[in-house]
Each structure stands twice: as structure tokens, then as C-alpha cells.
Amino acid sequence: MTVNTNGSNGTRDLYDVTIIGAGPSGLFGAFYAGLREMKVKVIDALDDLGGQLTALYPEKFIYDTPGYPKILAMDLVKHLAEQAKMFKPTIVLGERVEQLERQPDGTFKLVTHKGEHYTRVVVICGGVGAFQPKKLPNPELVPYEGHGLYYTVKEKAAFRGKRILIVGGGDSAVDWALNLKDYAKHVTLIHRRDQFRAHGASVTELLNSSVEVKLFYELKTVGGNGKVEYAVIFDNRTKEEMTLPVDAVILTLGYSVDLGPIKNWGLEMEGTRYIRVNTKQETNIPGVYAAGDIAALPGEEPLNLIVEGFAQATRAVNFAYQYLHPGAKAFPGHSSEKKL
């Protein structure tokens, strides 16, 4: 596997398929393209492989990946990278694709802020695009960001022995409460409602754990001498306030997403955040495919799951192969029949 983190090499090498995005879908797509003996390049704007798994929660357990009862996100990325490198793809990190241009000969030129890349087909596995954590509209919180106030957890060890307040009611909030309860001195989770947006089994585990759960509570502010030492929360029904002594506050309020330049490539969209595809993962531009969290069938609610991204990337690559080799079968045969 060739890994290039310093921009394009200035050559006009033509690849069979270029995958935009090095998250789980992109990495598995790179493996499958190699399995079909395609010349593969992967481009990602981040400096590391893994997409959201690496950038947002490398030490969080993933429970819904086939073959693993549970696996750390960073370990899943490691295995996916090892699988992809079997066929030596070229991987370019730290480059954001800004333009997609069809050339007179039918191939594509991808323009980044560092150079140009040439390819016969494109598979967009850009996840949710660029993402920024949602924040509370409270300027008093800003000085504490990185000083006890966090939006992501990169290392669980940093929270060992601490009193933690987690704010939110989605999968991230519940998962982090469960992941950190054995590291921390005490974990409190507050949620503004009595209904969670997390997996039911995880919520049940949470409610039967040592985590202190306070429903109908919200965060008002935090305070301390240069770092978080306490948090003020309030009951949104009675407005009664309570001060909790804490060492860290983790806000899991979701993310604002932006597809960025992709919106200007002439692709048909499904809503504002999805690229419209058909059952072959084809977009409206021949030779351009999309898979994973960024793709959606018309009128269907997307299942933004890692396993769904694997399946879509597999379909995209195999139908891309058929596009490049008219008359060939999309079905590649069983991998057990191939010598790897």
C-alpha cells in the first residue's frame, strides 16, 4: 500500500477507480476493487485512515459489525486497513477533493488543494461530509473547551478516576457512559427528555448500570479555576438548579454536517445531505458511484450503519467494474474461489 500524506506526486497516472473517503466503506471498497484486480486510489481529507471512527471515537466499542461481538473503533480501522493493503492501493491523505471534472476521453480529473488525480470511475464514500460538533449557545462554556469540557473522547485513560458528566440521549452519550463507567470515579448522564435515541439494548444496560441517570435535566453552565470543577444543571420542568462537582463534561449533542464542494459537482441530491443513487449505487453522472452514509435511494430512509456501508461499497465497486468492462458480470464469484 502506497500512503501519500504530502499531496499529489504530479504524475498523470490513470487509475481504474478512485475512492473518495477512507472510512470503513471506503477501505472495504478499496479491498473489493483490488479483489477484482482494479488499480485503486483512495483520497481522504483527514490525515488518518478511518473517517469518523478515528476522528471522533477511536476508543469506543462497535457492537454491530459482523464477526465481532464488540471491537474498538481503532481496531476495526486497523483490520480494514490490513485487508485493503492486500492489493496495494495508493492512499492519499490530507487532501480534500474540491472539483470533479469529466475529461474529453470520458475519464475524470479530481482536483484537490494540493494537486490533480485521474481516474476512470469514482466511488464517493465521504461519510456525512465535514462534521463539527453541535454546541450550546452559551459563551461561558468556550474558555473551558479542552480544559474539562469535551465534545469527543480520544483516549479513555484521560478520564480515569474522574467525576464525569455526560450530556445527551443518543448512541454516543449512552455508549460513552457505558464505556467510561469502569474508568471514572463516577459518571452522571443527563438528558432533557425521558426518551433516548440510542439502541434499546444499550439503554437497558445503562439503566441497570452504576451510571447515575437524570432525566429532564439540561446543562446551564460550568465553572472552575481555569478548568472544569463543577457543572450547574437544571430540571427543565421546574427550572430547579443543582450544582454537581465534576472534573469533566462531555457534550454529545450531535454534529452539524456539510457536504462541502460535493454539492457543486452536478450530482442529484436526496434532501440536503445525501447523494441520490439507484440500486447499483450509480449517481446521475455515469461512472460516478456513491456508498455509505452519504448515499440514499429515492424516497427511502437511509440506514446509516457500518454494515450497510460495506454492502453498498461492494455493490458500487462491482457495478463499476461492469461499467469499465461492458459485458462482464457484476458478480465477482466467491472470494473462497480466489487465491489471495
Features:
FAD/NAD(P)-binding domain; EC 1.18.1.2; eight-stranded mixed beta sheet; alpha/beta; 2 domains; flavoprotein; five-stranded parallel beta sheet; 19% helix; FAD/NAD-binding_dom; 340 residues; Ferredoxin--NADP reductase; elongated; NADP
Named at the architecture level, the CATH assignment of the largest domain is: 3-Layer(bba) Sandwich
CATH class of the largest domain: Alpha Beta
Element order: H for helix, E for strand: EEHEHEEHEEEEEEEHEHEEEEEEEEEEH
Strand content: 25-35%
Taken from the alpha-carbon principal axes, the silhouette is: elongated
What is the overall number of helices?
A: 6
Distance between the amino and carboxyl termini: 15 Å
* Largest pleated sheet: 8 strands, mixed
Q: Extract low-pLDDT stretches.
A: 5-10
| CATH topology heading of the largest domain | FAD/NAD(P)-binding domain
The whole-number mean of residue pLDDT values reads 91
Q: What number of domains?
A: 2
Helix-residue proportion: 10-25%
Q: Structural class, from secondary structure content? A: alpha/beta
Extended strand count = 23
